[in-house]
TrEMBL record:
InterPro entries: AAA_22 (IPR049945), P-loop_NTPase (IPR027417). GO terms for molecular function: ATP hydrolysis activity. Gene3D superfamilies: P-loop containing nucleotide triphosphate hydrolases (3.40.50.300). Pfam families: AAA_22. This is AAA family ATPase. Residues 49-191 form the ORC1/DEAH AAA+ ATPase domain.
């Protein structure tokens, strides 16, 4: 017999694996579909030079989850064996680690393609081999997540160097590789100033939500998750005041919002309640932010003036200026 704890665990796993549909996710699918069609046009001898799609948004906006879901939903992107029993990888998704240099990146991609990449090799040689392997593997889409990590500094030289590396991947002989670059707002540096990258790109933003403009969307997400958890939504959670608090507490990030609503619902279920209430959100925000009870955005009177990024400001050691020694008066 399945006990209550096991039932709740199964529900949490099921809900966490479910994609909450949003307008941004739907629009992203359309953009990826159009991008794939453009790649096919290029393979047939047509298309344009806009072979980079930049997807930019701050952490918590649901960007990475949406991209992973959409890319995994296309059967055309899945690896297969051709008539010569060779493995073809139409789409390759790579997450760039913070410590990666452009050379590390080339070696990492080469190894993902099943080729050798040696640190003793010259960087230019590695990128030449990478181009050959991308063409040989039939990789027409290369997704680079957290692409801004390859920009090791904000200097114009570093930015230009990374632009040149990306541009070099777009001019592979007889192979129209398409790049999907995703990352936080720092990534936008590659598309400002010099117009070589912008002239080869299209951009999609993952913006944050605001209140009251996006209250309806927030309410829809709240209702969707609660319903999938078998809960009702307490009436107090549908007021403009509470919806504004929820947006403030999550920084307007759809991903962070979904995470908080789920956590509040799980709390209500654990207490065997029939509806999710403000108390559940108060608990979740307090646990995740570490804020003082008086500064919990869900319940504080002056919540509009609070900043979730300063929830622990009271713990930051105060700078103590050294005491100045008094000079003795000259006799």
């Amino acid at each position: 017999m399945i006990n209550k704890a096991e039932e709740l665990r199964a529900l949490r796993v099921r809900e966490n694996c479910r994609i909450v549909s949003t307008p941004l996710t739907k629009h992203l699918r359309i953009r990826i579909e159009e991008f794939w069609e453009h790649a096919q046009d290029c393979l047939a001898g047509g298309g344009s030079r806009r072979r980079t799609l930049a997807i930019i948004g701050e952490s918590g906006t649901g960007k990475s989850t949406a991209i992973t879901h959409v890319l995994n939903s296309f059967d055309e992107f899945k690896p297969y064996k051709n008539e010569h029993n060779e493995k073809i990888i139409p789409m390759l998704s790579i997450e760039v680690e913070y410590s990666f240099t452009p050379k590390d990146f080339a070696i990492h991609v080469l190894r993902k393609l099943g080729a050798d990449g040696s640190y003793s090799s010259n960087e230019t040689v590695l990128y030449d081999e990478l181009k050959n392997q991308l063409r040989a593997s039939g990789t027409i889409l290369l997704h680079i997540d957290e692409a801004q990590h390859l920009k090791k500094s904000g200097s114009s030289k570093a930015v230009m160097g990374l632009k040149d590396r990306f541009k070099s991947l777009l001019v592979i002989e007889n192979w129209p590789l398409h790049l999907i670059l995703s990352g936080v707002d720092d990534l936008s540096e590659l598309f400002t100033g010099d117009q070589q990258m912008p002239n080869r790109s299209s951009v999609m933003r993952f913006d944050t939500l605001s209140s009251p403009a996006d209250n309806k969307r927030v309410e829809e997400i709240l209702a969707d998750i609660a319903a999938n958890c078998g809960l009702k939504v307490d009436k107090a959670l549908t007021t403009p005041d509470f919806l504004g608090r929820l947006v403030k507490a999550t920084g307007g990030g759809i991903g962070t919002l979904i995470e908080m609503v789920r956590a509040a619902c799980y709390k209500a279920l654990a207490k065997e309640h029939l509806a999710v209430k403000a108390k559940d959100f108060e608990f979740v925000y307090g646990r995740t932010s570490g804020s003082l009870p008086s500064e919990n955005i869900i319940t504080a009177k002056a919540w509009v003036d609070l900043d979730r990024s300063n929830a622990l400001i009271d713990l930051v050691p105060k700078t103590v200026e050294p005491k100045r020694s008094r000079k003795k008066a000259s006799k």
